[in-house]
Design brief:
By secondary structure, the chain is an all-alpha fold. The chain has 6 helices and no strands. Helix 3 (about 30-45) packs parallel to helix 5 and helix 3 (about 30-45) packs across helix 6 (about 95-120). The chain is globular.
């Protein structure tokens, strides 16, 4: 994850989109979960020292996520992973066991599942 140029490749203020995407289309959840996964990847990049793209907007992202209306319990957990990571970052901490565990869960639940379903 740390090899990506998030500021250059993903320059849009995605935190502004997280609460605006609610068109009733089937891919709304995919887009919203994708934004949260992107935030997790940006956090990983911050924690491993290879990027600073999320720290510049961490307060705005946390504020947007405080208004986030999740579709289900998995989306609640995914949002909480990002909020926890932002809290760690703000306090100058490294990822803890909770963040690492939840990141693994998110990978399996969202990223891996996306590719499994796409291959069917």
């Amino acid at each position: 994850m740390g090899d990506l140029d998030y500021a250059g490749d993903y320059p849009r203020p995605y935190w502004l989109l997280i609460n605006r995407i609610n068109t009733g289309q089937d891919d709304d959840r995919l887009i919203r979960s994708g934004i949260l996964i992107l935030f997790m990847a940006m956090l990983d990049s911050e924690f491993d020292g290879s990027g600073i793209s999320i720290s510049q907007h961490q307060d705005a992202i946390a504020e947007a996520l405080s208004n986030f209306v999740p579709e289900d319990s998995d989306m609640i957990r995914l949002c909480n992973v990002v909020l926890h990571g932002l809290s760690l970052l703000k306090n100058g901490c490294q990822p803890d066991d909770r963040f690492k565990e939840d990141s693994g869960w998110a990978y399996n639940q969202f990223i891996r599942q996306y590719f499994v379903q796409s291959a069917i």
